[in-house]
Design a protein that fits this description.
18% strand, binds fe (ii) ion, alpha/beta, TIM Barrel, seven-stranded parallel beta sheet, single chain, 31% helix
Length: 275
């Protein structure tokens, strides 16, 4: 077993609409935690709906400003930590062409494809829930995920596969891998067949004793069984103190699921590292 913690490949700074963290604070925290590589993956969610408490286009990323800041710190910290230039692209069918274009035009190291919206609503907000049974909402979420992955093809990993499970109304127990196995397996097989990976995302472990990481371990295990190879570790940190959140525990889960390696990326090319 490798004693170094896996690289954190899902992190946000003030360049993302929902973070206030200075980039340098995130880097310093990663150093304190002993990480030797990190990848910023700032949000780009085009056509994000308007919410009363949010400014319009809150998740439209200023890529040139982000790039300039990142490259400044990459140079400053080059002897201490590798800093990669990534993005988390929010998928919706109507912005697919724009998303493909922006990935093509920018020389990212790493691209996460995520679903944050189902029919233009974010499960993070209470008004998302209630339009149907929770079972049907999950079914719609997984349908939308696969539909978008077939359209937006220029990515490296799928972000937090069962994202919607993070925000279910308190105490609801509808979600399990087994219950949605038919749909989840189809997504996992699609990723494996296309050489794509999974973001193994620890965010909820930082604040909940009951929620599971995304994807849940059973889905991660199934990905391996279906021929999936590429996994990256992501804290989804939006603040310095949650970088590398529970990565020791996450590594053990990945090992238990049959994975022996995790991946980092350089100019979109994956490299395997022993777990
Ligand atoms: Fe996300």
């Amino acid at each position: 077993m490798n004693n170094n913690l896996p690289a954190d490949y899902h992190m946000h700074s003030h360049n993302s609409g929902d973070s206030k963290a200075p980039m340098e604070d995130m880097i310093e925290s990663a150093l304190e935690r002993g990480l030797s590589e990190i990848c910023f993956t700032e949000h780009m969610d085009l056509d994000y709906p308007e919410y009363p408490d949010l400014p319009p286009e809150q998740f439209t990323l200023n890529i040139p400003a982000y790039r300039e800041e990142l490259f400044k710190y990459r140079e400053k910290y080059k002897d201490r930590i590798n800093i990669k230039f990534g993005i988390e692209v929010g998928m919706q069918p109507q912005v697919t062409a724009q998303n493909l274009q922006l990935v093509k035009e920018n020389n990212f190291d790493f691209v996460i494809a995520s679903i944050h919206l189902v029919d233009k609503k974010d499960p993070f907000y209470d008004d998302f829930w209630g339009w149907d049974t929770i079972e049907n909402i999950f079914r719609r979420f997984f349908d939308v995920t696969l539909e978008n992955l077939k359209l937006f093809t220029d990515y490296d990993v799928l972000g937090h596969l069962d994202y919607v499970a993070r925000y279910v109304p308190n105490g609801d127990t509808t979600y399990s891998y087994e219950r949605f196995k038919d749909q989840i397996d189809e997504i996992l097989a699609h990723l494996a067949r296309n050489g794509k990976g999974l973001d193994f995302n620890s965010k909820v472990l930082g604040y909940s004793d009951t929620l599971l990481p995304n994807p849940c371990p059973q889905a991660l295990k199934r990905f391996k069984e279906l021929g999936g190879e590429i996994i990256t570790f992501g804290s989804d940190a939006h603040r310095p103190d949650t970088i590398g959140c529970e990565f020791a525990k996450m590594r053990q889960i990945a090992l238990d699921c049959g994975f022996t390696h995790y991946y980092t990326f350089d100019h979109r090319v994956p490299t395997a590292h022993q777990l």
